[in-house]
Amino acid sequence: MSSPLPKISIVTPSFNQAAFLEETLLSVFEQNYPALEYIVMDGGSNDGSDDIIRKYQDRLTHWESAPDKGQYDAINRGFAQSTGEVMAWLNSDDKLTPWALKVVGEIFAEHPEIEWLTTAYPMHWDIYGRATHCGYNGGYSREGFFRGEHLPFGHWHARGWIQQESTFWRRSLWERAGGGLDPSFSLAGDLELWARFYKHAELCAVATPLGGFRVHPAQKTALRAEDYSEQAKRAFLLHGGRIPSRAQNFVNGWLAKLIRFLQRRYDRRLNGLPGAKLCFHRGMEGGWNIMDT
Fold first, then answer.
1. 46, exposed or middle or buried, with CB in 10 Å at 0-12, 13-18, 19+?
2. What is the pLDDT along the chain (293 residues), one digit of tens a residue?
3. Helix (H, G, I), strand (E, B) or coil at 221
4. How far is residue 37's CA from residue 179's CA, in Å, rounded to a whole number?
5. How far is CA 19 from the centre of its chain?
6. Nearest by Cα to 95 from 212, 8, 12, 9
7. 186: which DSSP letter?
8. Which of 55, 115, 224, 280 could form a disulfide with 173 if both were Cys (CB 3.0 to 4.6 A apart)?
């Protein structure tokens, strides 16, 4: 007998994103996930966003529109209204893929050992909501994160950041990691949160897209990319991250590959660098397997 799907709480912070907000809301509602708790926290928009929210208020668990102290303040207050076992936030110009919540719910139900989950195939949407990019990033590990592999914006040591729009976690992990986003990181609060999560649990990735980041001219991260990158570095260093030299990075990479090869060959864990954990669907059999890659 399969485990019941967990309740998923999603918070959408919103401010003057009426051009995209309805598409964001529908990307959540149209999944028809049976145990959804959806909360919208609008910062007092004056572009008609509140009319869009009112249109769907019967399907929302909670919503409000009033001035706030910024995006992460709104998200924290939204989560304070939530009760779901699994949590995530989705910005008001981004979207989930149509299958995301059922995939996430099934994996958390089948694998209680997984405490947070993201995609191995991050996606981008364009201004019209079309998927324009989706690439495999190889998965994630704690060691790689604290070596700078997932810092944003393509430094030599980086190979792709953890996509916030596609990341979900258990409430128990959120509470152990402090129970809130740090608003002093006004742009890179996501990476600062991931650093705290990694002190408690490994991140597992699933081999299917879960959500996407919309690229458009008014996108805050794109407009302030340099500021975001600097905040991300500050959070990374604050939590003990250290970027190795190019030579060390090369050696570490080959050492990790050798250890994973020996683990697979001899079917036992060796001391060293663990591989990234990926979830793969079992196909006709149904359900999900976890593998070290």
1. exposed
2. 467 999 999 999 999 999 999 999 999 999 999 999 999 999 999 999 999 999 999 999 999 999 999 999 999 999 999 999 999 999 999 999 999 999 999 999 999 999 999 999 999 999 999 999 998 887 899 988 998 888 886 565 567 789 999 999 999 999 999 999 999 999 999 999 999 999 999 999 999 999 999 988 776 665 567 888 899 989 999 999 887 666 665 565 666 556 555 545 554 443 344 568 889 898 888 899 998 76
3. helix
4. 18
5. 23
6. 212
7. T
8. 115
Residue type, 134: C
Decide: 77 and 64 in contact? Cβ < 8 Å. no
- Spell out a b/e string for 122-149, using b for 16 or more CB atoms within 10 Å of the CB, else e: bbbbeeeeeeeeeeebbbbbbbbbbbbb
Residue-by-residue DSSP string for 105-147:
HHHHHH-TT--EEEESS-EEE-TTS-EEEE-------HHHHTT
Reduce the DSSP state of residue 209 to 3 states and report it: coil
Task: For residue 242, give every residue at least 6 positions away whose Cβ sits within 8 Å of its Cβ, in sequence order, or none.
Answer: 146, 147, 148
Sign of the CA dihedral with 7 first, then 197, 276, and 186 last? positive
Residues facing residue 291 across a β-bridge: 278
| Residue 250 structure tokens | 């090369």
C-alpha dihedral, 26 to 32 to 37 to 43, nearest 10°: 0
pTM: 0.87
Q: What are phi and psi of 20, to 5 degrees?
A: -120, -15
Q: In the numeric block, which tokens belong to residue 213?
A: 């980041």
Largest distance between two CA atoms of the chain: 62
How far apart (Å, rounded) are the C-alpha atoms in residues 278 and 168?
A: 15
Is 117:107 a contact under the CB 8 Å cutoff? yes
CA 129 vs. chain centroid, Å, equals: 19
Report which of 21, 251, 235, 85 is spatially closest to residue 146, judged by C-alpha positions: 235
CA distance 83 to 81: 7
